[in-house]
Design a protein that fits this description.
The complex is a heterodimer of chains A (93) and B (689).
Chain A lengths: L6 H8 L6 E2 H8 L3 H13 L3 E4 L22 E4 L1 H9 L4
Helix pairs in contact in A: 2-3
Chain B lengths: L2 H18 L5 E9 L5 H9 L3 E5 L6 E8 L3 E7 L11 H13 L3 E7 L3 H11 L6 E6 L1 H6 L3 E2 L1 H8 L3 E3 L8 H13 L15 H12 L9 H10 L2 H10 L2 H13 L3 H20 E2 L8 H9 L4 H43 L5 H19 L2 H17 L1 H15 L7 H6 L4 H6 L7 H10 L6 H15 L3 H26 L8 E3 L9 H20 L1 H14 L9 H8 L1 H5 L6 H9 L6 H9 L9 H7 L3 H13 L4 H11 L2 H28 L5
Parallel strand pairs in B: 1-4, 1-5, 5-6, 6-8
Antiparallel strand pairs in B: 2-3, 3-4, 7-9
Helix pairs in contact in B: 4-12, 6-12, 8-9, 14-15, 14-16, 14-22, 15-24, 15-28, 16-23, 20-22, 21-22, 21-29, 21-30, 22-30, 24-28, 25-27, 27-28, 30-32, 31-32
Classes of the chains: A alpha+beta (93), B alpha/beta (689).
Chain lengths: 93, 689
Amino acid sequence: MNKESNTLIRLMIAMTNGRPKSSRDLAQEFRMDEATVREMLTRLAERGYLRRNTPTCDGACNACPLRQVCAITPAIWVLSDKGHRAVIAVGHA
Amino acid sequence: MTHSDILANHQAREDHNTHTASPRKRTLRIALAGQPNVGKSTVFNMLTGLNQHVGNWPGKTIEQKIGTIHLPDAEITLIDLPGTYSLTANSPEERIARDYIIREQPDVVIVIVNATALERNLYLVAELLQLPVPIVVGLNMLDVAEQNEMHIEPHVLEAALRIPVIPLVATRNQGVRELLDTARQIAEHPETFNPSRPAIRGPHSEVVHQVQTMIAPYVPPPYPEDWAAIKLMEGDSEVTEIIKAATPPEVWHQIDTILRAHEDAFLDIVGGRYAWVERMTRAAVIRPSKGPITLTDQIDRIATHPLWGLVVLSGVFGLIFWATYTIASPIQAWLDGELVQPLAMTAGAILAGAPAWITGLITKGLIGGVGTVLTFLPILIIFFAMLGLLEDIGYLARAAYVMDRFMHLMGLHGKSFLPLFLGFGCNVPAVMGTRIIEDPGTRLLTILLAPLVPCSARLAVIAFLAPAFFGRYAAIATWGLVTLNLIVLALLGVTLHHLGHVTSHSAFIMELPLYHVPNGRTIGMFVWHNTMAFIRKAGTIILVFSILIWLLSALPPGDVGQSVLARLGRALVPIGQLMGWNDWRLITALLSSFVAKENTIATLGILYHSASEGMDLAQRVATALTPASALAFLVVQMLFIPCVATMAVIRQETGSWKWSSISIALLLFIALVGGIITYQAAVLIGLGG
């Protein structure tokens, strides 16, 4: 499937242009529901094309008096190496 | 001709036959499928009433509901399948749903679809259509969709899907009976079922056919060959195991080679389903031009705007400082003046007969040091309450989002802001949080920048001193100090970014939660956890260091001006004089912040103890400084090297003493230059010298 008609590929391409986006931005860009976009992100992550990333401080933060603040960080999705390869494979470097 | 028309023709022929054939009670099995929270249970209850049996699916702890519908001419068994978003092997619910359909082969599947989330729900329909079973769609919650200004044409959808689509408002029992009647007709005339199915386009469609041909002789019944081939290409773990077990090793080896070479077939298969969903909804759904305008949308127009978002963020920070000074600072000053000082005097009176070192340790070291730090509590409680409130209503994610865009403008890595943002709480998680950045150069850059984010302990120290230094201008001064730190951070970031030729620009997608009414308990827990952690810190590291500072200030016994600490401080006075600090005690207090930022106040509390009666500590410190030197003191305090815990984490995360040393040297240099420039500039504009 070419990159124009495959929303999954378009979504990954959107993650290579160096600008952070919210799932709402993407939903508007692709004229889709935000829930659908989030579901696509989940499916891509399940297959290793994306990673859901949240800064954590692991066990090393246990002594930190303010470790609770860690919980306030929003979750982000980033393209994995596999995702980068897939984007390159459809001719979008 | 829609599917309803075709069925109507068949029904007419059936009615004709009924008059000529003997009546016979039919038995049918209908499965009820749908995503979670679409009203499936409501439909099930409406149809079966009390004729339900609730148990568990064989071998699972997932609830199974089976009901019976007694009709004059038919006995229908209705099986409520678990709610699932798709039919992959990801969860037990999804396996149960698809296994039931494949193995038990019900006469028809009714799929309940939520009209307000049609796109998302049709994905499940797309998956079901790849199984050999007829389907009827119950389009539920149409009333809610209309309320959201979303207009759906069921007939257009039906024509596109080529599947019967029955409009429902299940909660009002509207359309439920018609849904059942249509399902019956489809079950009795499965030959009329000819839906529009999702297609696999592109190079992988050929590969799917190739795999299907290869597995065809080995696919165990009742699994459909085409479905098994698609699921294999999709990477479905359960189907892969089944086919692998049923296929001779040499054939499996060939199949496995193909699967590995065409790993991205997943994108064509799943992308094909989404393209199908898009086509199905395009004609049938009329949305408001920009989607339903929710409260979140309205707020986000400003809150996430590239420019106004920054203005809002700046205002929010200003509000935090204003609230802190208006509410917390007076309480803090009261605690210091009415509790700590009298406590020290009372303790001094009680210990009048005790050795001088015991009196000094308790009144100066413990009460003056730890006691003063504990008066921070109101400041921290307000700070954490504001932070917790902003997080709970959903604003903090926007703050990160807005700042992230801002940092991109400066050429910094997009993901750097997230860990840096944590730095407002504490620099330690900020440094640890850089682990989300893959590029080593960008990660190192972010680690070097993290200590410039003023942590809550630094802010508390500023909140303690600023009112005495700047009076009613304290909030503005603090806001300016925080802004200065962020400007320095940005400038340093841009400089190091270009020097280091860091070029990684991978973007990311951030989840922005909906705004919602804050929950008092959540915020309360947030404040409680953080406050208790601070008290623990005061009772351990700050306590120990307060005693150490007091010891150094009390040895050798006699004049504090001749103590070890004084000698150390005086050695650095020539540097301090560049910023107008002639008092060694200020320099010592600043150095002690390396252990923990709050120690600045503990040290000042010990060294300025009872220097001038009738004034609180901050006022006593203020008398030792001109406005220019006071401002320089706060600037250096803000830009100074971070606490030892942060430095330890920097060493751990960089794995390098060299970079840890560079970080210290860089921050010392920046703090010194910042302090000197601030002092000299303030003197030039007449703030005293």
